[in-house]
Amino acid sequence: MSALADHLLIAPIALPLAAGALMLLFDERRHALKAAISVAASLLLLAAALALLARAEAPVTHIYPIGNWPAPFGIVLVGDRLSALMVLLAGVLGLAALVFSLARWHRAGPHFHSLVQFLLAGLNGAFLTGDLFNLFVFFELLLAASYGLALHGSGAPRVRASLHYIVVNLAASLLFLVGAGLMYGITGTLNMADLAVRIPAVAAGDRVLVEISAAVLGIAFLLKAGMWPLGFWLPATYAAASAPAAALFSILSKVGIYALLRLWLLLFGNGAGAELLVYGGMATLAFGVVGVLASQDMARVASFSLLVSSGTLLAAIGLGGEAVTGAALYYLVVSTLGIGAFFLLIELVDRARAPGAEVLAVTAEAFGLADEEAGPEEEVGVVIPATMALLGLAFACSALLIAGLPPLPGFVAKFALLAALLDADPVPAAGWGLLALLVLSGLAAIIALGRAGVRIFWASQERRVPRVRVIEIAPVAALLGMCIALTVAAGPAMRYLQDAAQALHAPRSYIEEVISRP
Amino acid sequence: MELIVALGIGILAGSGVWLLLRPRTFQVIVGLSLLSYAVNLFIFIMGWVRGGLPPIVDAAVPPDPARFADPLPQALVLTAIVISFATTALLLVVLLAARGLTGTDHVDGREPEE
């Protein structure tokens, strides 16, 4: 292995960090230069992520001891199939949001590009680290960048939503610290693999303290993932954020799910707390379904769809089993890409409509006022300009993705999830409940998105043709195209994810590799 | 000694949580600061409460863990202090922006209706 390839694992962290720091040196008038640096760094990051993914064959492929201190004492970065996948997902979303922002959003604040790069560095660090306290540091890095991005563009609604977002997440970070501190106090280590070795050996009297610390950590992660009683901050913040920031945020809630999946399966196997995850996830799913149906604003529909996807993932992880986890990972990828594209699309579609139109439209529907004054002269048919046709196509694709209808991969993901759930013998009652809720959530999404789509694209209300630049529609098309590619290549993708799930459920090889490798 | 430290952390954390739940943004930020003090102390005593011991191994003294304080919680708490300081400063800016944009210091951006 060449010297460069040895350091591949640190590239997804070091690269955006260096690019972000470099851009701080230039003042806010040099947009073109900053954009060039930012896009180049994102392209390199994407290449590094692809290289990581291509090498992810064995259960644990890369171990990178930072400062060359061996595993239980120093901090290690660990790359396996799941980490490589998440890094690639972050890179793809980051590049799409960046390119989208080049049309106009990146000029709305002085340090947009730096914040995006720091967010990517934090995300990649959280996905790659093998140390509990290091995970906290990367969480803080990505959260600090996300505070800035949530505020990007300013304005009273954004500041108000961000205030709640920051306070809630600061409190969660303190909980994370309490959990990590307690864990260190009892086991004397913070390395994840070493923790997995030491926790079974903890004296019976201290066992309850380990469980308390795991529960406190769990609350911090579930808050990030937006589980039902902890997720009320999510729709308001995401709906208020600017379009590229919101698209990037669609992977933020998945960080909580990643941390949960990694630590829970590594430290506790498939035991304690599974029921909490299942029922909490189902409650989140139900809350998301009600929210999707009740929302009038499209950005809120997208935010509640994110809650639906979080809930589905949590419940599926809680139900356990390799097959279910593999299908859940496929769902994670697809829903993140789909919702990210949808957040970008909303902004373009919203330009076509007068402000406040959706409130009026839904009110008119509720009171049965619609279609009353549609005169016969309008039945000739409205000529849809090419922009509207393109936006409509993209909207239909995202709607199919989010609702999980064929032929797009949302359907493949849900089908795989349901097939894996029904494979168990006998199917647990919670499995049937999740099945019903999943089908219901698809129905709710198609009702809400169908209603919105008809109002925007077909209803003969007054509207302007939005001015959409190629650079804005291209990232949306690329994200949706990637989803279509995932349908075509569902076989190989599923095999890869099943291998990842298998490695997660059999953490022995992960532990041995991390501890024993010099 | 353990009892005093534990009581101190408890009082800090209790006051912090109470202030965090108050409706004014300044109370919230002071509450978060108190909570972070409590958490920092909590991490610090995870290296056990022992006074007068250096965290550095001296080559002249035999390497016996009972003679040294655990340096790791001290490193952790230093990181945690820096991070919470930075995020509190950021929150302070957002608080001022919210006060300026909404004209009230209520956390919801508007006064509750009587």
Please summarize the sheet with the most strands of chain B: none
Tell me, briefly, the overall form of chain A: globular
Spans of chain B with pLDDT under 50 lasting ≥5 residues? Answer: none
* Side-by-side strand order of the widest sheet of chain A: 1-2
CATH architecture of chain B: Orthogonal Bundle
The count of DSSP E runs of length 2 or more, i.e. the number of strands of chain A, is 2
**Which assembly state applies to the chains in this document?**
heterodimer
Order of helices and strands of chain B: HHH
Main beta sheet of chain A? 2 strands, antiparallel
Give the rounded overall mean pLDDT of chain A: 84
The pair of chains with the biggest contact is:
A-B, 30 and 32 residues
Q: Strand-and-helix sequence of chain A, N→C?
A: HHHEEHHHHHHHHHHHHHHHHHHH
Portion of residues in beta strands of chain A equals under 5%
Briefly note the CATH topology name of chain B. Answer: Helix Hairpins
Q: Classify the helix fraction of chain B into a percent range.
A: 55-70%
What does this structure look like?
With 518 residues, chain A is an all-alpha fold. Helix content of chain A is 74%, strand content 2%. Chain A is built from 22 helices and 2 strands. Chain B is mainly α. Chain B has a single domain (2-53, 65-102), classed as Helix Hairpins, CATH 1.10.287. Chain B is built from 3 helices and no strands. Chain B is elongated. The model of chain B has no long low-confidence stretch (mean pLDDT 85). Chain A binds chain B through residues 133, 137, 140, 143-144, 147-148, 151, 154-156, 159-160, 162-164, 166-167, 170-171, 173-174, 177-178, 180-182, 184-185, 190, and chain B through 20, 25, 28, 32, 35-36, 39-40, 42-43, 46, 72-73, 76, 79-80, 83-84, 86-88, 90-91, 94-95, 97-98, 101-102, 107-109.
